[in-house]
Amino acid sequence: MDFTAHNRLILPNVSGPSETLYLLRYKSWGHHALAFYRDGQLTEFTYGDWQLFALMQRDLYTSVKNMLIPTPGALGRKQVHWQKGQDMRPLFFELEKTLSFQVSAHKSQALWQKLNNAFIKGRNQQVLNARDQVYFVPYPVAYSLLNNCNHELVKWLGFLGCEVHGRIFWNPDLIKGVQNN
Predict the structure, then answer these.
(1) Average pLDDT score over residue span 150-162
(2) In whole angstroms, what is the distance from residue 127 CA to residue 56 CA?
(3) Are the C-beta atoms of residues 100 and 60 closer than 8 Å to each other?
(4) Is there a domain that residue 159 lies in?
(5) How large is the angle between the packed helices 105-121 and 149-159, nearest 10 degrees?
(6) Is 104 inside any structural domain?
(7) Which of 34, 44, 53, 164 could form a disulfide linkage to 78, CB 3.0–4.6 angstroms apart?
(8) What are phi and psi of 142, to 5 degrees?
(9) Number of domains, the chain
(10) What's the pLDDT score for residue 92?
(11) How confident is the model at residue 2 (pLDDT cuts 50, 70, 90)?
């Protein structure tokens, strides 16, 4: 784990069929999410703690407790109609900035299937976070100080062939530190 202050996201070299994905950075907590575009629809996947993200129980006690003691994870999904070139910020609460980047179409499809299947599997327990308009389902990866929303996103980016260096735990800015491989 790299604890340096500056973040660096190295995007993959892509040869062969590719797909554009979107990295979303939010104003609150330095949170990031990943979005896929298919058939005029943008689908955001995000990860977090069940109480903090799905139920919006963000008091100090719950926040600290859920960082120190591993708690149930939550997979969030939001789907909106969107066309390439349209500003995404009005569609996502407190969205600060976005980054579009190319990845292998095969890897993108595999990650999409993994995340979408996990969401569908938990759909009978889904909860709507009304403020963010994101549906959350239970996710089998525990949330903690060492595996928060940004850590899980870094795993997804790694699956896509990206490399991430620097501070991940609190308020990373992966978009600011982007580099092409």
Answers:
(1) 93
(2) 11
(3) no
(4) no
(5) 140
(6) yes
(7) 44
(8) -65, 145
(9) 1
(10) 93
(11) very low
